[in-house]
Specification:
The complex is a heterodimer.
Chain A (H helix, E strand, L loop, with lengths): L1 E7 L4 H12 L4 E7 L4 E6 L5 H10 L3 E7 L1
Antiparallel strand pairs in A: 1-3, 1-4, 2-3
Chain B lengths: L5 H41 L8 H17 L1 H13 L4 H18 L9 H25 L1 H9 L3 E6 L2 E6 L8 E4 L9 E5 L2 E4 L1 H4 L5 E3 L4 E2 L4 E2 L4 E5 L7 H13 L7 H29 L2 H14 L2 H21 L2 E3 L2 H6 L3 E7 H5 E12 L3 H12 L5 H10 L7 E7 L3 E6 L2 E6 L1 H6 L8 H9 L3 E7 L2 E12 L3 H10 L3 E5 L4 H11 L3 E3 L7 H9 L3 E7 L4 H6 L2 E5 L12 E3 L5 H36 L5 H20 L7
Parallel strand pairs in B: 11-18, 11-20, 18-19, 20-21, 21-22
Antiparallel strand pairs in B: 1-2, 1-3, 3-9, 4-7, 4-9, 5-6, 5-8, 10-22, 12-17, 13-14, 14-15, 15-16, 16-17
Classes of the chains: A alpha+beta, B alpha+beta.
């Protein structure tokens, strides 16, 4: 499953790479990429990964999830 | 869970508000930091202190407090959070640097250290300024993509019952008949049900010539109707429209990575913690060797604020953003950042023939008439009108008749042609086999037929009452710009190859016309990918084809160019999608990729060079912390500005 996360509060390159690493730590996440430019994260994950898990991973690094869409 | 397209509209003002926010912080910070600067420098500037010690330190602390803890609060809070969560970011460096410097102001009363609190406020003011300028430049980097977002129509005029009413675009339903007047935007994708007009599609496909639209033609939402009234039945709305697909495609590309960025990413990941450690070691070292605590703190702060992970992290994404925005404007949609890098390794470009080099639809190319040409075409078209064959359609289209002659006893002779009676004449139209069958001699025309056939064309012989009155040659004509595009690629040194299911003769004729030397003919569609694989043994291969039938070959190739046609856009295949159904886009996409990749390399070089030079200089204690902060801010601004300069490149 592929998901798009709209993230608020990023303003530097380290922010994006932090969120990326945090997302990758969720079990079941195969790949995660975060773009500072369009403020979005792209996650490829197993169905077992819930939106809550993703939100928590984003929050852990200090940013806010605006919305999550499924592809 | 599915969000509508307008989610994108919501996040667009976020960018503006971010810029506004930084601007407000910047103004206030400077309103306080400038008096602080005077207080700090008054002795040097005027030879005496405006306010005596220790009152000036108290004043600096008071003025500096809001700079750090009000206007810089989001930075300090965000940065300090890193020390608890261990997700350090850029802010962590600035937060630590400014807070430590500020505290020295308080400690200075005890006489242990010199006062750096003014420096703290200056650093924050410069940091906020840098962020503001960077946000502006980043906004500019995305301006083309933003324009795409703003392209969609806001309103539509639809027919409800017998009344025309204006509704918001969200209220248009599939099947609604929309009325589009000259000069207006077509609200959403649809089919023309009435009317004729030229439509300017340049904003979505990059095609500069307006497209003629008539009944049952597909039109794209957000394109502009030029001269006639069109009645359009809505077929796609919201996030299913062509424009929505394009926007998504361009945006998603920002989430892909360019391989060259990997090293920069790895460094960014460990950058901040490493700098924290380095700053600590630097301060410790300075204190140990010089015994001067103030100096040790000053140097440590300089190291903290000079390090700039942002330049490294922004180098690639900003250039990619500008590049893909420039492409989108011309109908070149870069789906994968990787393609930009792979592009420069490409040696061989393989073109599918039908629909890629050619129009994909037969057309009358030559008419050899023994009678008046008008008469020949009138007879031929009247008969062919009754046939469904693509070649028949080409003849009908060419004749452009207002009225067709009445045909009696029409018969399709499978694989050979057609026959029928017009007035008193017996008409036969078909190939050699049919003529032989009907015992019609075409000996005198053998040369003409041969000539057309050697050009890969299909010939139709037209006979009236057993006598040949003309020959019509039909071929899948080459697109108008295929020749010039391929010539440019040949000249650039690419090995161009054409692949097709056609027979060798037809294929070679087309290849010769467009200037391709290598032909792979008689290839079944499913074998195209295999042929690409074979070519890959000799070098990197790009494949150009339509996204639907050629999907496996596009996937197999190193860079796949999927040609879109009209409203069909094959998103899943192809690393680069060309919205305009023309080979010119291939040339442009190659130029654009090379220019963008060049910018990325420049940016990365700059970012690496900056950090490897600036950090040691700061460690050596040669930089004042405020100067260090200015250098840091400038370095990330430079990277983003340099990416914006990509626009100067003509593609």
């Amino acid at each position: 499953m592929k998901k798009r996360i709209l993230i608020q509060g990023m303003h530097c390159a380290s922010c994006a790479s932090n969120i990326e690493r945090s997302l990758k730590k969720i079990p079941g996440v195969k790949s995660a990429r975060v773009s500072l430019m369009i403020k979005k994260g792209y996650v490829e994950c197993e169905d077992s990964v819930s939106d809550e898990d993703l939100k928590k991973a984003v929050a852990r690094t200090g940013y806010r999830t605006v919305s999550i869409e499924k592809e | 869970m599915e969000k509508e397209m307008d989610e994108h509209h919501h996040d667009e003002p976020v960018e503006d508000s971010e810029i506004r926010d930084w601007k407000r912080k910047m103004m206030w910070s400077w309103a306080l930091a400038i008096p602080i600067a005077f207080l700090m420098l008054s002795e040097r500037l005027f030879g005496f202190s405006i306010i005596e010690m220790p009152y000036s330190i108290i004043l600096i602390l008071v003025l500096g407090f809001p700079v750090l803890f009000v206007f810089g609060w989001s930075t300090i809070r965000g940065g300090m959070r890193g020390f608890t969560s261990f997700y350090f970011n850029m802010d962590s460096l600035i937060a630590l640097g400014t807070v430590v410097a500020y505290i020295t102001g308080i400690l200075s009363f005890s006489g242990i250290v010199q006062d750096y609190s003014g420096v703290a406020a200056m650093i924050m003011a410069f940091f906020v300024t840098g962020k503001y300028v960077e946000a502006l430049a980043r906004g500019r980097a995305g301006q083309e993509i933003r324009k795409l977002l703003e392209l969609s129509a806001k309103k539509a005029r639809v027919l409800r019952g017998n009344r025309e009413i204006e509704v918001a675009i969200e209220e248009v339903k599939i099947g609604d008949i929309m009325i589009v007047k000259p000069g207006e935007k077509i609200p959403t994708d649809g089919l023309v049900v009435r009317g004729e007009s030229a439509v300017d599609e340049s904003m979505v496909t990059g095609e500069s010539l307006p497209a003629e639209k008539k009944k049952s033609d597909a039109v794209i939402g957000a394109t502009i109707n030029q001269d006639g009234i069109l009645y359009v039945k809505a077929t796609k709305i919201g996030k299913d429209t062509f424009l929505a697909h394009i926007i998504r495609l361009v945006e998603d590309a920002q989430g892909t990575k360019v391989p060259i960025q990997k090293l920069a990413d790895k460094i960014t990941n460990i950058f901040v913690p490493s700098i924290l450690v380095l700053a600590l070691l630097t301060s410790g070292g300075w204190f140990y060797f010089s015994g001067d605590l103030s100096r040790a703190i000053g140097v440590g702060v300089a190291v903290l604020v000079i390090a700039c992970p942002c330049a490294l992290g922004l180098a690639t994404p900003t250039a990619l953003m500008v590049g893909s925005g420039m492409g989108a404007k011309k109908g070149i949609l870069i789906r994968k950042g990787e393609a930009i890098q792979t592009m420069k390794e490409i040696k061989i470009i393989v073109f599918d023939k039908t629909g890629t080099i050619t129009k994909g639809k037969p057309e009358v190319t030559n008419i050899h008439a023994e009678v008046k040409e008008n008469y020949l075409m009138e007879i031929a078209a009247s008969l062919e009108k009754l046939s469904e064959h693509p070649i028949a359609k080409a003849i009908v289209e060419k004749a452009k008749l207002k009225k067709f002659r009445e045909v009696k006893g029409f018969k399709v002779l499978r694989g050979r042609g057609v026959e029928g009676k017009i007035g008193k004449s017996d008409i036969v139209i078909g190939n050699r086999t049919l003529m032989n069958e009907k015992k019609i001699s075409f000996k005198d025309f053998e040369k003409v037929i041969e000539k057309f056939e050697s050009q890969g064309k299909t010939t139709m012989i037209v006979a009236e009452n057993g006598k040949i009155i003309g020959i019509i040659a039909v071929a899948d004509a080459v697109k108008s710009d295929s020749i010039s595009a391929i010539a440019q690629l040949n000249e650039a040194g690419y090995r161009t190859v054409m692949i097709t299911g056609d027979n060798e003769r037809t294929a070679k004729a087309i290849a010769k016309e467009v200037g391709i030397k290598e032909v792979i003919a008689n290839v079944l569609p499913e074998d195209k990918a295999k042929k690409v694989e074979e070519l890959q043994k000799e070098g990197f291969v790009a494949f150009v084809g339509d996204g639907i039938n050629d999907a496996p070959a596009l996937k197999q190739s190193n860079v796949g160019f999927a040609l879109g046609s009209g409203t069909d856009i094959a998103i899943e295949s192809g690393d680069i999608v060309l919205a305009k159904n023309s080979l010119e886009g291939v040339v442009q996409a190659i130029n654009l990729s090379k220019a963008t990749f060049g910018k990325i390399k420049q940016n990365l070089f700059w970012a690496f060079a900056y950090n490897t030079i600036a950090i040691p200089v700061a460690v050596a204690g040669l930089l004042h912390p405020v100067i260090a902060e200015i250098a840091m801010a400038l370095s990330s601004i430079t990277v983003v500005t340099n990416a914006n300069l990509l626009r100067r490149k003509k593609i």
